[in-house]
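The pair is quoted verbatim as follows:
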Amino acid sequence: MSIAPLNASLLPRVQPPQEQKTYTVQHGDTIGGIASKQGVSTQDLIAKNPQISNPDALYPGDVLNIPEKQPKAAQPGKGSVTVNDDQSASAPGVPQGGATTEKTSKTNTHTGVDTDGKVSVGGKQTDTTKTTNLDGSESSSSSSRSLDASVDPSKGTFSVSAGTGFTESVKTSKGYGISFGVNTNATVVSGLNTKNGVTTFTSSGDVSVSLQGGASGGHVGLSAGHTSGIKSSFEVSMPEQAAKSTAPRTVSPFSPDSMPTGTVVKMDGSSYSTNEFKATFKHLATQTKVTDESGVSLLVEKTDTNKVRVTAGPKEAINAYNGVGIDFEVASIMLGRNDKLETAHLKTAEFDLSTPEGKAAYNDFLANGNMPENNGTGISSVKTIEKLDFSSQSRLDLKLGPVNLGLEGAKNTGNTVITRFPDGTAQGTVTLQYSGNVPMTVTQKFDASGKEVASERRYSYTVKVDENSAQLLNVAQTGDLNKATSGPVKAGQTVTLTYTSSEMKTLLDQTAKAGERNPDLRALATTLGGQAASVEDFAISLARNLNGDDYNTCYRLFNISDGFDVGDKQYAKLPGQLTIG
C-alpha cells in the first residue's frame, strides 16, 4: 500500500460531531491492552481520561473515554491525509463429526498525519474460530496481534505499543458458560521537554501479562484475574543552557563526565502483580483487587564540577481494593475502599570525584551497589532514609442502565520519613492529613541510643488563608482585636503554625479553659471517656477533628483565644510560631 501525493481531493471532509465512544473496564484489563483492543495509542488513551489518577490501577466498572482513531480535519494551509485499510475474510466451516466451524480473520491498519503534525501508524489482526455442535453448544477461540506508534512534535514524545493475546470460551445450549484468556502488552514512551529553564528527557516502558477466567450460570457468577509485569523509567533533567551543548539522551550516571553541573538522573525499576476476584450470588456482589509492586530507585545529582550525590535503595508498594454491593441486570451499586502503602529504604552520600577515595567509592557503588556507611575523605553527607507513605479512601460506584456514577469519599493520607546519621542520631518526620482537614507534621530528634530529645519535638499545621480567616488568625496569635487587619497574616498567604511540646501544652490548657463555655472545644481537650487529653492526643485532634479545613481551623483558634472572657471581649494571645510562605 502507498500514499498518493497530497492534493485537494485527498483532504478529508469535515464530519458531523460523533457521540463519545466509551469502554467499561473488565477483569484483567490494562491501559495498554485496552488501547490495543480499541486501536488507539496508550498515550492518547491516558490523555483522554484525566479522571484516572493512576493508569496502572484500573478497576472493573471504570468507564474510559476512547479517543477518535481518525486524525483532526485539515485546516487551510495545513494539509492532512489518512489512509485506513480494513480487511476481513471469513471462511464457512466444514462439518466434522457433527460440528460446524467458522474461521474469521480481520486486519486493520491505519496511517495518519493530523493538522498539528502528529504522526501515527498502527495495525491489528484478529483470527477467530467458532465451532457449533449439533446439540446447540458453542465454543470459540481468538488470537490477536497489534502494534501502534505515534510521534507528537508539540509535546516532544514518541510512543510504541505492541500486544498479543488469545481468548477461549464455551457456552452450552442452556446458556451456562466459562471463559478464560491471556493478553500481553508492551508500551514504551519517551519525550524531550523544556520548561522553566530546565530541559527533561524521559523514557518509560512496561510489559504486562494478564490472565483472566470466569464462569456464570443463572444468578451466580465468578471471575478471577491475575496481571503481572515490569515497569521502568529513566529521566534526565539539566539546565536549559547546558542542554544546548549536551544532549540529555547522551547522559549516563556511569560516566559522570557526561553530566553537566546541575544534571539530575533518576531511574526506577519495578515488577508488579495484581490479583482480582469478583463473585455474585443472586444480587449480592463482592470484589477484591490487590496489586503488589517492588523494585529499586536511583537518583544521581551532579552537584559540582567534581561532586556527585547518590540516593538509592529498594522500594515496595501495595494497592488494595475491597468492595461489597448489589448487582442486578439493569443496576448495580458497589461500596468499597482503596488502600495504598509504599515503603522505601534509601541511602544517600556525596562523592568528591577529584579525590582517589571518592572516585573509588563511587566506582564501587556503580559496580557492586555498595553505599558508604560513614563520612570520610572524598565522601560526605552519608545518611540513611526510611520512608513510608499511605492513603485510604472510600468509593461508591453506581450503575443504572447506561448511566455510570462514581463518588469519592473522604481520603486520609500520611507519610513518615526517618533520617539516620553515621553517629547514630536520627530525625523523624510524620505528616498526616485527614479528609479535607489541614495537614499536620510532627518532627522528632533522637540521640545515638535511640531516645527522643523531647525538647526538639515540633508540631506544625499549614493553612491557606483568605481575608476572613486572616483576620481570625491575627486576633488569635496577637490577642489584640485591633490587629485583625494590621496583623502579620494577609489574605492569600500560606501560613505554618509551629508549636514546641511546652507550647502545645499551653494551647491545650487554654482550650480546656475555653471549653467550659464551648462544647466543641471541650471535646478537643478531653478523651471519649471524659478524661483530660494528653498533649499528643490533643495535637492529633486538632488535625483529625471534623470541619478542620483552612477556615474552620483559624476560627477554632479564634474561639480558643476568645474563650477566656466572652463578656468583655478580651482575647488571649495563643502560643506558637508563625511562618509565612
